[in-house]
Amino acid sequence: xxxxxxxxxxxxxxxxxxxxxxxxxxxxxxxxxxxxxxxxxxxxxxxxxxxxxxxxxxxxxxxxxxxxxxxxxxxxxxxxxxxxxxxxxxxxxxxxxxxxxxxxxxxxxxxxxxxxxxxxxxxxxxxxxxxxxxxxxxxxxxxxxxxx
Length: 148
Hints:
The protein has helices at residues 76-81, 141-147; strands spanning 2-5, 9-12, 18-20, 33-37, 45-50, 57-61, 91-99, 102-105, 111-114, 119-122, 134-138. By secondary structure, it is mainly beta. It has a single domain, classed as BH3618-like (Roll), CATH 2.30.290. Strands 3, 4, 5, 6, 7, 8, 9, 10 and 11 form a nine-stranded antiparallel beta sheet that branches.
């Protein structure tokens, strides 16, 4: 499938990289179909590119790569919403943001995806350990100057 993007131009995407969020994402209820773009085989960051809107895209990552004890407890109706079989492990992604002194992730609002049918939803966790600005990487002033 050819996906139009404002960042990369037209991108050919394999159908196995397409995801659907029937309820949309928080603040983006109309964007429901996405392509998961992987810049390279070794990277830990991906682009979640809207298929409906070329200008809607998010950088995402697997939260377990950064915090091994990260876990999401789903209610029965949430697993039913994405048709996740009992005992199956969902794929988890979190939206990443660049902040003044580093990179943060919205660990309080993860994306939960059924890897079988590639349907997902965004949940809001009540667990106060996780925030919408969980720090993943801090960039020191010397490092920022060196990368400019």
